[in-house]
Design goal:
Radius of gyration: 24 Å
Catalytic activity: ATP + protein L-histidine = ADP + protein N-phospho-L-histidine
Number of helices: 7
Structural class: alpha+beta
GO molecular function, one term: phosphoprotein phosphatase activity
Keywords: Kinase, Membrane, Phosphoprotein, Transferase, Transmembrane, Transmembrane helix, Two-component regulatory system
Helix content: 55-70%
Bound molecules: adenosine-5'-diphosphate
Subcellular location: Membrane
Enzyme class: transferase
Order of helices and strands: HHEHEEHEEHHHEE
Mean pLDDT: 87
Shape: globular
Strand order of the largest sheet: 2-4-5-7-6
Length: 258
């Protein structure tokens, strides 16, 4: 009977170890590795703009004092880089606060027409100035509860991309509707499209399709990771499909709370 008791203990120990490793150890190990990659990528992303700014400043210092104001273009290049760094730092902070579980969503009743109109008032003139058409179709009446600031951030990220990756003459359409108890916010564009291979990866941190093509468009591959995080905080899903005949459709789906 001693042998049987030992056997039972042994089996129990293995079962507990197995369950523990599935439940906790594995995610912890993965997230350590991811965390290390995340910091390394972040440092790398910050180094580039800092080097540009440093070079511009060193160049300015070689100029005679009185001529410095003639150097508007290097000052504005440096300012652009500072702007990009600001966005990057804001996004990094958002993701690390998300990782640390300290972002609480604040659900409020939102009038979708009003909410989307505010975003449109900013993006419509921008689209027009780039000779692109931006349309909005809200098929939901009444109010829906979500975090209006966070969801605005998510929509703005997707809209920014739609504009960035759609050439002149293109059309971007935002559609807001309800389906099967879910709120669906979709953004379609007639831009460059995304290959099936890349569709699986664009939501990962720092992933960018074709770095050389994208180097002109700025960005650092954090936008969609943040949009996904925000949608998940709302217990929703985000996905991407082809638009026909060309371009991309991003869709955010969140369960409706009244
Ligand atoms: P980025 O700051 O580089 O735009 P994102 O995470 O927002 O980072 O997007 C990741 C990559 O997905 C982009 O670099 C781009 O290659 C691709 N992408 C995103 N949205 C679109 C779109 N509407 N059309 C084509 N490609 C897109």
């Amino acid at each position: 009977s001693l042998f049987i008791t030992l056997l039972i203990f042994w089996a129990l120990a293995i079962a507990i170890a197995y369950v523990l490793s599935r439940l906790s150890m594995r995610p912890i190990l993965i997230s350590w590795k991811k965390q290390r990659e995340f910091s390394a990528d972040a440092a790398h992303e910050l180094r580039t703009p800092i080097t540009v700014i440093q070079n511009q400043m060193e160049y300015l210092l070689t100029k005679p004092k009185k001529r410095i104001l003639d150097e508007a273009s290097s000052i504005s290049t440096a300012l652009d880089e500072v702007g990009q760094m600001q966005t990057l730092i804001k996004r990094l902070l958002m993701l690390s606060r998300g990782d640390a579980n300290i972002i609480q969503i604040q659900r409020q009743s939102v009038d979708l027409r009003e909410w989307s109109k505010r975003i449109f008032n900013i993006y419509q003139p921008l689209a027009e100035s780039q000779h692109k058409t931006l349309r909005r179709d809200v098929l939901v009446s009444g109010e829906v509860a979500f975090d209006p600031d966070l969801m605005r951030q998510a929509l703005v990220i997707i809209l920014d991309n739609a504009l960035k990756y759609t050439p002149e003459g293109g059309v971007i359409e935002v559609l807001i509707k309800k389906q099967h108890g879910k709120l669906i916010i979709s953004v379609s564009d007639t831009g460059t499209g995304i290959s099936d291979k890349d569709k699986n990866q664009i939501f990962e941190r720092f992933y960018r399709v074709d770095e050389s093509r994208n180097s002109k468009t700025g960005g650092n591959g954090l936008g969609l990771a943040i949009a996904k995080f925000i949608v998940q905080q709302h217990h929703g899903k985000i996905d991407v499909r082809d638009n026909h005949p060309r371009g991309t459709v991003f869709q955010m789906m969140i369960p409706i709370f009244k």
